[in-house]
Design brief:
Layout lengths: L1 E2 L8 H15 L5 E5 L17 E7 L2 E6 L9 H21 L6 E4 L4 H12 L4 E5 L5 H5 L8 H16 L2 E4 L2 H10 L7 E3 L12 H11 L6 E6 L9 H8 L7 E6 L5 H10 L5 E3 L8 H6 L3 E5 L12 H7 L4 E4 L5 H9 L2 E4 L4 H12 L3 H18 L2 H15 L3
Parallel strand pairs: 1-2, 1-5, 2-4, 5-6, 6-7, 7-8, 9-10, 9-12, 10-11, 12-13, 13-14
Antiparallel strand pairs: 3-4
Helix pairs in contact: 1-15, 2-3, 3-5, 8-9, 8-13, 11-14
Length: 409
């Protein structure tokens, strides 16, 4: 397994890779994970790790983890991300070349270069590849206006991405929109594509006591309407739009917005709150995984913003965590996106188009006026949908089967 993020990093992609390694080891397979040194979401190497080319070998949960060098991207700048991507791809590919030949390689690495470099080494060794695609690139870069889709470089990236996908024995995508892109626009045979959503373990049932303790910690009054954004504060999340609308609410509104988390866009979010001179917006800093449920269930509504067309090319794993908490979701996403489809199918919240500040303000006013019992019912519908479609039990066995099939088991 080649994983660009892996625990102790708290990202969903890291947690699902860990679950897969555990499950394969429990099935009796000999599993080795090649992972970068943990640094997300803060862009700093975790305590207890010292970066070198290959190091910090550790046996855990029945499998071995080998850390591979990469540069660290402390911002969302394109060149910084590219350096991280390339350096991990090169070190992981070298490690793969030096290891005994495996039966299959599962790749959940940075697109396109890290995944591509590792894929070509695996192909040279005639090892079957299972390629996991979390976000569709370069389209995600187009949506964030980090790359012009009409340039020759953009066409080259599309060609490279298709080439990497074609040499894989199986391609795993996390959304129907990504499945459509790889089938129709990358020319990948439909039988090679497997749509398996990311998942989260069904944690303890959220309780009113749990929520009240967290609200007390934050100093949130019972009558205050609390909006929470929690998790990685990345450039693609577009939380600034929510900050703006909440800041412009009338003076009589008892509404608060808490941004709980850290990431490359945190400073810009703080700057946005300062520009609006808003006393409604607060930042609670990063948190550890076991605090997630309490933080989420303390909210009356959970904010899930995306920028531009970003929701068309990725399925934010944050949505799964939100639904697990049993709280309704206010999503800013394209109406034709998978995010919108899940929110509408589950009945767990509302969707407004990115860039529609007036529509967001109007919708938020309606939501704030809703009765708490109705909000609670919407949240519970989301949790039930998550348990059916996005739980470990619903998704992990499918991915194990894909990997074993590629290995000829």
């Amino acid at each position: 397994m080649v994983c660009s993020v892996f625990p102790p990093e708290p990202l969903t992609s890291a947690l699902t890779s860990h679950s897969l390694a555990q499950a394969l080891a429990k099935c009796g397979h000999d599993v080795t994970v090649l992972a970068s040194y943990p640094n997300r979401p803060n862009g700093r190497t975790f305590p207890g790790f010292r970066r070198c080319l290959f190091g910090h070998r550790k046996k855990e949960d029945g499998f071995q983890v080998v850390r591979c060098f990469s540069t660290i991207s402390r911002s969302s700048a394109l060149l910084s991300r590219l350096a991280e991507n390339l350096s991990f791809g090169l070190s992981a590919a070298l490690a793969l070349a030096l290891l005994p030949r495996p039966d299959v390689v599962y790749i959940n690495a940075w697109p396109i270069f890290a995944a591509g470099i590792v894929s070509f080494v695996a192909k040279a060794r005639r090892v079957p590849i299972v390629l996991s695609i979390q976000d569709v690139y370069p389209e995600s870069l187009f949506s964030l206006k980090k790359l012009d889709s009409t340039t020759g470089f953009a066409r080259l990236l599309r060609w490279l991405d298709a080439s990497v996908a074609r040499i894989a024995s199986a391609v795993v995508v996390v959304s129907k929109s990504a499945e459509d892109i790889y089938s129709r626009h990358r020319g990948i045979a439909s039988e090679k594509i497997h749509c398996i959503a990311n998942w989260r373990a069904a944690e303890d049932q959220p309780t009113p006591e749990m929520a009240q303790r967290q609200r007390n910690l934050w100093g949130i009054e019972t009558d205050d309407f609390l909006i929470v954004f929690a998790g990685n504060v990345a450039a693609a999340c577009g939380i600034e739009s929510v900050i703006k609308v909440v800041s412009e609410l009338d003076n009589e509104s008892q509404t608060r917005l808490i941004i709980a988390g850290s990431g490359s866009a945190l400073d810009s979010c703080r700057s946005a709150a300062a520009r609006h001179k808003s006393s409604r917006v607060e930042f609670s800093g990063s948190f550890v995984a076991h605090e997630t449920l309490a933080i989420l269930c303390a909210a009356d509504v959970l904010a899930l913003p995306t920028q531009g067309d970003q929701s068309l090319f990725c399925m934010p794993s944050k949505l799964i965590s939100y639904m697990m908490s049993g709280r309704p979701v206010l999503a800013i996403a394209r109406l034709e996106s998978d995010v919108a489809k899940v929110v509408h199918a589950s009945g767990c919240g509302w969707v407004v188009q990115p860039g529609d500040s007036a529509g967001l303000g109007q919708l938020l006013g309606t939501v704030i006026a809703m009765a708490r019992p109705e909000l609670a019912r919407m949240g519970l519908r989301g949790r039930e949908y998550m348990l059916t479609h996005f739980s470990t039990e619903a998704c992990l066995p499918k991915l194990v089967a894909v990997v074993e099939s590629a290995a000829g088991r």
